[in-house]
Amino acid sequence: MRSSTIFFTVLGLVSSFFTFGQQRLASSIVDADSGKPVPYANVSVANSGIGTASDESGSFQLQVPQGIRGGRINISCIGYINRSLSIDSLLGLQEKPTVKLKPATEYLNEVVVKGKQVTPKELLDQVVESIPKNYSQQPFNITFYSKISLFDDNKKIYTVESVISTYRDGYVPGALNASKILQKRETGVNPFANTGGKDSEDYFPYSPVFDVFLPDQIGVGSGNIHSVFNPELLKKLKLELDDVSSFDKDTVCVIRYDPSKEKYTGIIYATSNSLAVVKHVIKIGNKNYEIYYKKFNGLYYPYLIRAESIMGTKKASYKVLNEIVLIEVKKPAVDVFKLDISKTDLSKVKYDAEYWKVNFPEK
């Protein structure tokens, strides 16, 4: 079975990082009170762009180059108090260590911004107004790792991993978004025919690139009629404060927007101090998305995206889960390219065994 752990590294380390002196740090993150796994936590090396995210079982693995030994690992997750741990202390353990995160207790039942009580609508208005200061307004590249899993009666029957290079004009209205698939690795038997063509009954049209930008709607402005980040749509939505939590030393307001009137519905996790979105749960058509954001070098970027849907043929239907994690953010040396549909087709990407052996080795 392929490893389900996923990695990211920032600023150009994708191809070279894994080939030099390094040591693999493996750990699991659990709730300090209940002992239950903490999934989708952000794990990063202090003062660097290297990090990863815990998977659904709370486990993570991280390649630590010899050059940054002696540093610290920072762990943060919505609803928990941040932890900072010595890299050397974790690497020196004989057995896989367990990191305990203490739940953060919030007693507020209202939205407070800079000491002033506001409505959920007023908070989201301020979040939209703060997009230029919180999200890049200049072009950038992001490289992602994607793992698509197909399930038949809850049994995983097929997995395809890929590495995706993306370009974005910035979090601005009308921004150009383009992607291309660089690498691919398959496990199991694909029940769909990749080569059958669009007219084939078993054609598999799923491309991971569409799950990268579809839920990442921050900054779209009035150009998207189904986005809560469209100011005109935001005026019409019914907003309710669902909960108050915390993330990365900031208060997080959990705001649900009315699912009864709009096709684009969901829950926004917005911070009351930095006025940024750190998580967005969205339903778009038959797809359910979760997108998580973390600040890197003063600006927020998505570090994890999960997409769930049902796909099928006349013979059978399958649950499809796509898990996407940040590998690299590149700015300012940006590679500008336009969307080429042929480069988003998984069936056209050849398997490079050496690449996967060096960069994403199996357990």
Write the layout of secondary structure elements.
Layout: E1 6-9, E2 22-31, E3 42-45, E4 50-53, E5 59-65, E6 72-76, E7 83-86, H1 87-91, E8 98-101, E9 111-113, E10 116-118, H2 120-129, H3 131-134, E11 140-152, E12 155-168, E13 177-188, H4 210-213, H5 231-234, E14 239-247, E15 250-257, E16 264-271, E17 277-284, E18 287-296, E19 299-312, E20 317-330, H6 353-359
Parallel strand pairs: 2-8
Antiparallel strand pairs: 1-4, 2-5, 3-4, 3-6, 6-7, 9-10, 11-12, 11-20, 12-13, 14-15, 15-16, 16-17, 17-18, 18-19, 19-20
Structure description:
The protein is mostly beta strands and 363 residues long. It has two domains: 6-101, Sandwich (Immunoglobulin-like), CATH 2.60.40; 111-350. The protein has helices at 87-91, 120-129, 131-134, 210-213, 231-234, 353-359; strands spanning 6-9, 22-31, 42-45, 50-53, 59-65, 72-76, 83-86, 98-101, 111-113, 116-118, 140-152, 155-168, 177-188, 239-247, 250-257, 264-271, 277-284, 287-296, 299-312, 317-330. Strands 13-12-11-20-19-18-17-16-15-14 form a ten-stranded antiparallel β-sheet, with helices on both faces. The protein has a five-stranded antiparallel β-sheet with strand order 1-4-3-6-7. The chain starts with 5 loop residues before the first strand and ends with a helix. Mean pLDDT is 82; it is low at 1-21.
